[in-house]
Design brief:
single chain, 181 residues, alpha+beta, 5-stranded antiparallel beta sheet, 7 helices
Protein backbone atom coordinates (compact mmCIF):
# COMPACT_ATOMS: atom_id res chain seq x y z
CA UNK A 1 0.00 0.00 0.00
CA UNK A 2 1.06 3.56 -0.70
CA UNK A 3 1.35 6.08 2.12
CA UNK A 4 -1.83 7.53 3.57
CA UNK A 5 -2.75 10.93 2.12
CA UNK A 6 -3.74 13.86 4.28
CA UNK A 7 -7.42 12.91 3.98
CA UNK A 8 -6.80 9.36 5.21
CA UNK A 9 -7.41 7.65 1.86
CA UNK A 10 -4.86 5.00 0.95
CA UNK A 11 -3.93 4.48 -2.68
CA UNK A 12 -2.33 1.24 -3.74
CA UNK A 13 -1.55 2.41 -7.25
CA UNK A 14 -3.75 1.96 -10.30
CA UNK A 15 -7.27 0.74 -9.67
CA UNK A 16 -9.04 -1.49 -12.18
CA UNK A 17 -12.76 -2.12 -12.71
CA UNK A 18 -13.99 -4.72 -15.20
CA UNK A 19 -17.46 -4.45 -16.71
CA UNK A 20 -19.22 -7.03 -18.84
CA UNK A 21 -20.90 -6.19 -22.15
CA UNK A 22 -24.10 -5.24 -20.28
CA UNK A 23 -22.05 -2.81 -18.13
CA UNK A 24 -22.38 -4.97 -15.01
CA UNK A 25 -19.32 -4.95 -12.74
CA UNK A 26 -17.56 -8.31 -12.94
CA UNK A 27 -14.30 -7.55 -11.18
CA UNK A 28 -12.56 -4.81 -9.24
CA UNK A 29 -9.34 -4.28 -7.36
CA UNK A 30 -8.94 -3.03 -3.81
CA UNK A 31 -7.18 0.02 -5.23
CA UNK A 32 -10.21 0.79 -7.44
CA UNK A 33 -12.51 0.73 -4.42
CA UNK A 34 -10.15 3.13 -2.58
CA UNK A 35 -10.14 5.42 -5.61
CA UNK A 36 -13.93 5.35 -5.84
CA UNK A 37 -14.08 6.61 -2.27
CA UNK A 38 -11.45 9.29 -2.95
CA UNK A 39 -13.24 10.64 -6.04
CA UNK A 40 -16.60 10.71 -4.27
CA UNK A 41 -15.86 12.98 -1.29
CA UNK A 42 -19.56 13.77 -0.78
CA UNK A 43 -20.26 10.08 -0.22
CA UNK A 44 -23.05 9.98 -2.79
CA UNK A 45 -24.54 6.47 -2.72
CA UNK A 46 -23.82 5.53 -6.35
CA UNK A 47 -25.00 2.04 -7.41
CA UNK A 48 -22.24 -0.43 -6.64
CA UNK A 49 -20.21 2.42 -5.14
CA UNK A 50 -19.03 3.37 -8.65
CA UNK A 51 -18.90 7.17 -9.04
CA UNK A 52 -20.56 8.99 -11.92
CA UNK A 53 -17.24 10.04 -13.48
CA UNK A 54 -16.49 6.35 -14.10
CA UNK A 55 -19.80 5.85 -15.90
CA UNK A 56 -19.29 9.08 -17.83
CA UNK A 57 -15.93 7.80 -19.06
CA UNK A 58 -17.46 4.51 -20.20
CA UNK A 59 -20.21 6.51 -21.90
CA UNK A 60 -17.59 8.57 -23.69
CA UNK A 61 -15.98 5.33 -24.95
CA UNK A 62 -19.33 4.11 -26.25
CA UNK A 63 -19.91 7.44 -28.00
CA UNK A 64 -16.46 7.21 -29.60
CA UNK A 65 -17.30 3.71 -30.83
CA UNK A 66 -20.45 5.16 -32.46
CA UNK A 67 -18.29 7.71 -34.28
CA UNK A 68 -19.19 10.67 -32.08
CA UNK A 69 -16.15 12.89 -31.58
CA UNK A 70 -13.63 10.07 -32.21
CA UNK A 71 -10.68 12.41 -31.62
CA UNK A 72 -11.55 12.68 -27.92
CA UNK A 73 -10.12 10.11 -25.55
CA UNK A 74 -12.23 7.98 -23.24
CA UNK A 75 -10.76 9.57 -20.15
CA UNK A 76 -11.56 12.14 -17.51
CA UNK A 77 -9.62 14.05 -14.91
CA UNK A 78 -11.25 14.52 -11.55
CA UNK A 79 -10.29 15.81 -8.12
CA UNK A 80 -9.88 13.50 -5.17
CA UNK A 81 -11.01 14.34 -1.68
CA UNK A 82 -7.44 15.52 -0.90
CA UNK A 83 -7.49 17.97 -3.83
CA UNK A 84 -5.15 15.98 -6.04
CA UNK A 85 -6.04 14.91 -9.56
CA UNK A 86 -7.02 11.40 -10.61
CA UNK A 87 -7.24 10.11 -14.17
CA UNK A 88 -10.08 7.77 -15.14
CA UNK A 89 -9.68 5.90 -18.46
CA UNK A 90 -11.91 3.33 -20.19
CA UNK A 91 -11.07 0.79 -22.88
CA UNK A 92 -12.84 -2.06 -24.60
CA UNK A 93 -11.57 -5.55 -23.80
CA UNK A 94 -10.55 -7.77 -26.70
CA UNK A 95 -12.17 -7.14 -30.09
CA UNK A 96 -15.23 -5.17 -29.13
CA UNK A 97 -17.59 -7.70 -27.64
CA UNK A 98 -16.43 -8.86 -24.26
CA UNK A 99 -16.69 -5.90 -21.93
CA UNK A 100 -14.69 -2.99 -20.63
CA UNK A 101 -11.77 -2.12 -18.39
CA UNK A 102 -11.74 1.12 -16.45
CA UNK A 103 -8.59 2.31 -14.71
CA UNK A 104 -8.15 5.02 -12.10
CA UNK A 105 -4.72 6.35 -11.23
CA UNK A 106 -2.88 9.42 -10.01
CA UNK A 107 -2.85 12.01 -12.78
CA UNK A 108 0.67 13.00 -13.74
CA UNK A 109 1.96 16.44 -14.62
CA UNK A 110 1.31 15.82 -18.32
CA UNK A 111 -2.30 14.91 -17.50
CA UNK A 112 -3.11 18.12 -15.62
CA UNK A 113 -0.70 20.81 -16.81
CA UNK A 114 -2.97 22.05 -19.60
CA UNK A 115 -6.00 22.06 -17.35
CA UNK A 116 -4.26 23.87 -14.50
CA UNK A 117 -2.69 26.50 -16.74
CA UNK A 118 -5.92 27.17 -18.63
CA UNK A 119 -7.79 27.47 -15.33
CA UNK A 120 -5.32 30.18 -14.32
CA UNK A 121 -5.99 32.08 -17.54
CA UNK A 122 -2.50 31.66 -18.97
CA UNK A 123 -1.94 32.42 -22.61
CA UNK A 124 -0.65 29.64 -24.89
CA UNK A 125 2.84 31.19 -24.74
CA UNK A 126 2.73 31.36 -20.94
CA UNK A 127 1.60 27.71 -20.83
CA UNK A 128 4.56 26.79 -23.03
CA UNK A 129 6.90 28.67 -20.68
CA UNK A 130 5.49 26.86 -17.63
CA UNK A 131 5.90 23.46 -19.32
CA UNK A 132 9.55 24.27 -20.01
CA UNK A 133 10.06 25.46 -16.43
CA UNK A 134 8.75 22.10 -15.23
CA UNK A 135 11.43 20.47 -17.40
CA UNK A 136 13.97 22.42 -15.33
CA UNK A 137 15.11 24.99 -17.91
CA UNK A 138 16.83 28.14 -16.67
CA UNK A 139 16.36 31.63 -18.15
CA UNK A 140 19.08 31.23 -20.79
CA UNK A 141 17.63 27.91 -21.94
CA UNK A 142 14.11 29.39 -21.99
CA UNK A 143 15.36 32.22 -24.23
CA UNK A 144 16.95 29.73 -26.60
CA UNK A 145 13.97 27.36 -26.76
CA UNK A 146 11.34 30.08 -27.12
CA UNK A 147 13.45 32.41 -29.31
CA UNK A 148 12.74 35.38 -27.06
CA UNK A 149 14.88 37.79 -25.06
CA UNK A 150 15.73 37.50 -21.38
CA UNK A 151 13.53 40.55 -20.75
CA UNK A 152 10.54 38.88 -22.47
CA UNK A 153 11.04 35.71 -20.39
CA UNK A 154 10.95 37.84 -17.22
CA UNK A 155 7.81 39.65 -18.43
CA UNK A 156 6.08 36.33 -19.10
CA UNK A 157 7.14 35.01 -15.69
CA UNK A 158 5.77 38.10 -13.90
CA UNK A 159 2.45 37.63 -15.68
CA UNK A 160 2.35 33.91 -14.86
CA UNK A 161 3.18 34.52 -11.19
CA UNK A 162 0.40 37.10 -10.92
CA UNK A 163 -2.20 34.86 -12.58
CA UNK A 164 -1.27 31.76 -10.60
CA UNK A 165 -0.81 33.62 -7.30
CA UNK A 166 2.83 32.75 -6.62
CA UNK A 167 5.98 34.83 -6.20
CA UNK A 168 8.74 32.63 -7.58
CA UNK A 169 9.61 29.85 -10.00
CA UNK A 170 9.98 27.49 -7.07
CA UNK A 171 6.47 28.28 -5.80
CA UNK A 172 5.07 27.86 -9.31
CA UNK A 173 6.69 24.47 -9.82
CA UNK A 174 5.69 23.36 -6.31
CA UNK A 175 2.12 24.48 -6.93
CA UNK A 176 1.81 22.42 -10.11
CA UNK A 177 3.50 19.35 -8.62
CA UNK A 178 1.33 19.57 -5.48
CA UNK A 179 -1.75 18.95 -7.61
CA UNK A 180 -0.47 15.62 -8.88
CA UNK A 181 0.45 12.41 -7.13
Amino acid sequence: MAPVEADGIEHAGMGVLLLDEALRPCGTTEAARAWFTAINPAGIPFPGGIPGVVWNTVGRLLAIERGEDPARAARARTRTSSGRWALVEAARLDDGGSGFAVTVRVAGIEDVLGLVTRASGLTPRERELVALLLEGLDTRELCERLFISRHTVQDHLKSVFEKVGVRSRRELVSSVFAQTG
